[in-house]
Amino acid sequence: VVKIWQIPEYGLVTTLTESVVDLVFHQRRVSCVLWHPTANNILLSAGSDNLIVIWNVGCAEALSTLDCHPDTIYSCCFNWDGSLLLTTCKDKKIRILNPRNGEIFEEATSHEGSKGARAIFLKNGLVFTTGFSKRSERQYSLRAPGHMHDPITTVDLDSSNGVMFPVYDPDTNLVYLCGKGDSVIRYFEISADVPFVHYINTFQLPDPQRGIGVMPKRGVDVNSCEIMRFYRLNNNGFCQIISMTVPRKSELFQEDLYPDTPGDIPALSAEEWWDENKNAEPLLMSLKGGYQPTQKSDLKISKRSGNVLDRAPASSSSASSGAAASAAASSSVSSSGPSRGGDDGKALELAQEALDKVAQVMKVNDDLKKKIDDLQTEMKKFKAVFLKQELDKNPPFSR
């Protein structure tokens, strides 16, 4: 099950317990979820059932099912405008697909090792992959679509056994390699000069990492020349924040570090991308002066009638439900007849339905009251922390 959560505009003040919508399709564990880079409410999910499903979250419906992988799917990545999909699979193949219908444009061997490989699209259309060699050495490669079988460059790194996850920053053209179980983060610059992938540095940490995530570029601190922010999950269960900064003496806005970056406004609607087959590059925004969020509305789920995937079962189920309803109606008429007892029984049913609705409303009111009490408790805690900080700054008996 894929659950969609709506984070409040001003952040979390209490634990979220109810998702906005549940997307149910996969028969086994879901291993990857990915938002489309330019189309609104288009989501990709990949599961251990070897299927990729394209969702329209706004309608809570599956638009397409891609069944073109014979084994477990390791990674998925859209290209810059979302018109192509790049996948790696347990069969050691790397594939470029049409995300709308699953047509395979190109297929090649990624890395010869048996452990998991990962692949991402770069902004210029090239493909960056990580994997293992025959001798189980970790390696990365750079490839060009159309010649995926012949890498531009392949470099062996070390003999560690942790799978490397590439993190790409299209604004600075940097690739960060974060291995599961590693205590280092390596970063490289992609350029047109030989050897094309240039090693820059290694960030060393004392303990290994269990997982890692990144802040979108529009969330970094431009005043301190921060170009990347990692959220690193340590073995002790704590989340460590790692900030990558470029040392600059000037306090002015550094335009070379912060070119226009993808904003928070989608370039296409879900209908334009799916029904009209449109593609568009992301809408860019400037970070000069810091990120200014746009006004967003809450996600509202409105189910459309006529979903292609649900049409056949819906018709059969509706026909069966209609037959059951007609059978129930005929049986009730024949059993009740025109007698007064039938009217009394109908009145009792209506009264019971009214009582059930009253009970449901009372339950909703009780739930809302409990949520209000929880929020008031949280506000009291925030107030206590705020007062403590004020007292620490200005002691009442200080001179």
Automatic annotation (TrEMBL):
Task: Quote any Pfam family the record assigns.
Answer: WD40_4
Q: What Gene Ontology molecular-function terms does this entry list?
A: actin filament binding
Annotated stretches, region: Disordered: 291-321, 329-348
Keyword Membrane on entry: no
Can you say where the WD repeats lie in this chain? 23-65
Q: Biological process (GO) annotations?
A: actin filament organization
The cross-references to InterPro entries, in alphabetical order and at most eight, read: Coronin, WD40/YVTN_repeat-like_dom_sf, WD40_repeat_CS, WD40_repeat_dom_sf, WD40_rpt
Domain of life the protein comes from: Eukaryota
Keywords assigned by UniProt, alphabetized: Coiled coil, Repeat, WD repeat
Coiled-coil intervals, chain numbering: 351-385
Compositionally biased region (Low complexity): 312-321, 329-338
Q: To which protein family does this belong? A: Belongs to the WD repeat coronin family.
Quote the protein name from its UniProt record.
Answer: Coronin
The organism encoding this protein is Hyalella azteca
Give the source lineage, highest ranks first: Eukaryota, Metazoa, Ecdysozoa, Arthropoda, Crustacea
